[in-house]
C-alpha cells in the first residue's frame, strides 16, 4: 500500500490534534468495521470556524485525513466547511489507497456531525441544512 508524501506528513506530524476546551461544537463518528473513531471540536463565532481540533483513534490514514480535514475548514465559514467532502480531503492529500477511502468519509462525517451539534445547541434543526439528522442506521 503506497501513501503519498502528504499522507505520511499528516500522519507523522498531525495538525490541530487534541481537545479544544472552548469548543461550542463537537462531533464524533466511528466505523465499526475498521474500528476508527474521530472526534472533532470546533470553535465557531459569527458563522466562522475560528479554531478546530481533533482526536482520532485509528490507522495512519484516519489520522492523516482528520488532520487534513481540520486544515481545510479552519478559518472557513460553516457553509464552506460543509462543502468539504471526502473527495476534497483525498485530493488535498494527493490520494489515498482504495482500501482507505472510508477514512476520508469519516473525516467528512466528523465535520458534518460537529456542525450538526453546533446547530442543535443553537436550537436549530440541522436536518434541513445538512440533509440528514445523523440518526439513520442506513448511513451512520
CATH class: Alpha Beta
Question: Which structural class best describes the helix and strand composition?
Answer: alpha+beta
What Rg do the Cα atoms give?
A: 14 Å
CATH fold-level topology: Sufe protein. Chain: A
Uncertain runs are none
- Principal-axis shape equals globular
Order of helices and strands: HEEEHHHHH
Helicity level, as a percent range?
40-55%
Continuous helix count: 6
Supply database-style keywords.
about 140 residues, alpha+beta, Sufe protein. Chain: A, globular
Question: How would you summarize this macromolecular structure in one to three sentences?
Answer:
This protein is α+β, with helices and mostly antiparallel strands. The chain has helices at residues 5-12, 60-73, 78-82, 86-92, 101-121, 127-130, and strands at residues 25-31, 36-45, 48-57.
Could you walk me through the main structural features you see in this protein, from its secondary elements to its overall organization?
- The chain is α+β, with helices and mostly antiparallel strands and 140 residues long.
- The protein has one domain (5-130): Sufe protein. Chain: A.
- The protein is built from six helices and three strands; from the N terminus they run H-E-E-E-H-H-H-H-H.
- It has helices spanning 5-12, 60-73, 78-82, 86-92, 101-121, 127-130, and strands spanning 25-31, 36-45, 48-57.
- A three-stranded antiparallel sheet has the order 1-2-3.
- Helix 1 crosses helix 2 (60-73) and helix 2 (60-73) crosses helix 5 (101-121).
- The two termini are 27 Å apart.
- The relative contact order is 0.19.
